Known about the structure:
Blueprint: H1 14-27, E1 33-34, H2 46-56, H3 71-85, E2 95-98, H4 101-112, E3 118-123, H5 127-135, E4 139-144, H6 160-165, E5 166-171, H7 184-196, E6 200-204, H8 221-226, E7 229-231, E8 238-240, H9 258-261, E9 268-273, E10 286-290, H10 292-305, H11 311-322, H12 326-348, E11 361-365, H13 374-385, E12 387-388, E13 390-391, E14 402-406, H14 411-426
Parallel strand pairs: 1-12, 3-4, 3-5, 5-6, 6-9
Antiparallel strand pairs: 2-10, 7-8, 9-10, 11-14, 13-14
Amino acid sequence: MQLSKRLEPLSFNVFADMDKAKTRAKVAGQNLIDLSLGSSDLPASPHALEAIAQSLQDFSTHGYSLFSSTQAFRQAAAQWYNNKFSISVDPETEVLALIGSQEGTAHLPLAVLNPGDFALLQDPGYPSHSGGVYLAGGQVYPMPLLAENKFLPVLGDIPKSVLAQAKMMVLSYPHNPTTAIAPLSFLQETVAFCQKHNLVLVHDAPYVDFIFDTFSEAPKAENWELGVGSRDNVSGDLTIEDGVLNQKQDKQPLAPSIFQADPEKTVSIEFFTMSKSYSMGGFRVGYAIGNPQLIQALRQVKACIDFNQYRGILNGAIAALTGPQEVIRETVDIFCQRRDIFVGALDNIGWPVPIPSATMYVWAKLPELYAQNSVGFCVDLVESTGVAVAPGAGFGKAGEGYVRFALVHKPEILSTAVKKISLFLQG
Length: 427
């Protein structure tokens, strides 16, 4: 049987290899502690679940959910955005409901790229970003994210020959997997760059609320990379030299939105999800906000592929977006506590890592023995100890030499995982 050539770039998948290694570990009797997936272990809010439960008894919600059926959700998403960033959004022309934000980021290249066009992607970056480009017949130009550049791409390094064929750039901050935050000044620079070169600017923002500390526009590079500073593991207070990090906040800080840099929505589209802030990953609810032409183009692609999810789930998402928002602060505080415990435990076993200011991850340079073999480290670790982590190579060439830990377990389980890692490294 001959299959499409567009599948060839997708054949290399280190996460499929990791799934096989996890299966072997379980068959061998290991108790799996899975830190490889960013799937929150926290429950969705009771008021969101209640809205879904009530919808089940409403037979009018049981049919197909077309675009018009998502109006209330789009209005809630537009209001949610305006409340956060004080930027108005038209729910009819600038918002689109999605079956998870990954649906949107993977399908948008079908609406933007012609075969052979370049997409400028972060390296390392989220795998579905490149997958969507390859399925659209596009080419990927990887923009390296390096610690010495605070994990921001250097736009001036992109070759002119690539820019001549490029149609889109994809960013995602706070960043998975590096945990970096992009300052508004960088987003403004990027918007101007995309306007100049006629590029669509895609910003994937699932961790917009997952900010633990204050963020300086110009932190010292050495502090950002090495996490120089002090941490009180009892109180959770955290400081970094020059005031880069300071955990205690009266108000939940936010990462910048792309529309603070592009308020007229000239070239940009931004993707949001209910998976992280509202712990609704399995419900598969996301949404795009952006330039009306881009929203309409993505809507056309979506209309050929799927209807929307069950309207009762959208009702639950509406309840989450419009109901009490204290759950976000509580969720972020839980992951902040986990961050401090996990980073402190790694430091205690002789594996110092930067203190992440955002996301639910820890991005760690590998010990010297595995410096350029992140897949080998992860396979050996899970088969020997049952602790599963994500290899940096799975996020791109520039991710090699790193691993990503997802803080998706209670502190006692995270501490157990570090103890197992310590025994593995001593072994």
